[in-house]
Each structure stands twice: as structure tokens, then as C-alpha cells.
Amino acid sequence: INTRSVVNYRVRGVPYEPSGLRKSMASVAMVVQLSGFACVFAGTTICQFFGLDPTPPLIDALQQNKMMSFVVLFFVGNLVQSTLTATHAFEIYKGRQLVWSSLS
């Protein structure tokens, strides 16, 4: 804006926070992702600690192919979290007057 304008404007970026529900859902997704990581790398030990014998088939499947399980959990978890927290908000103000908004 400053390079194409005659007037020298002060430009600053400010984050637009997502709603409380979306933040909470992203936090739940993070907990699920971290729990999945724990199951991939220490699932059998965790099941033994809690007295689950035999180990559930899902945890056995995660541990049989640790690399693929980790990559899928990593990318899908991050995709869900970023989708939930994205606001795509962009607004332009001149002084206190709203000139343009992607939210309205």
C-alpha cells in the first residue's frame, strides 16, 4: 500500500481470533492427535498400565506401521486444527472508518 500511494499510510496487521467454539474444537483435535501419537509409540505399554489385556486391535494396527500412522496423524491433525482456526478475515480501515471487509 505504501509503495503505490501518494500518502504514507501506517499499515499494521492484527490477528482476528476465531470463535470460542472453534478454538475449543481445535484444542480437542490437538488432544486427539497427541493421544494418537502416544498410542503409536507406547500403545502396548499404556494398555498394560491400564490393565487392557489383550491390546485393542486399533492400537496393534497403529504400532505395526508406525511411520505411516505417525505421518497420517500428523498431517490430518494439523489440517483439522488449521481448518478450525482459519478465519480468512481481512479488513481495511482508514482512521476508524471501515473501508473494506471480507467478513461482511
From TrEMBL:
Listed transmembrane segments: 28-51, 71-93
Listed InterPro entries: Selenoprotein_T (IPR019389)
GO molecular function: thioredoxin-disulfide reductase (NADPH) activity
Key word Glycoprotein present: no
Source organism of this protein record: Vitrella brassicaformis
Cellular component, GO annotation: endoplasmic reticulum membrane
GO biological process terms on file: cell redox homeostasis
Protein's UniProt keywords contain Nucleotide-binding: no
UniProt KW keywords: Membrane, Transmembrane, Transmembrane helix
The name this protein goes by in its record: Uncharacterized protein
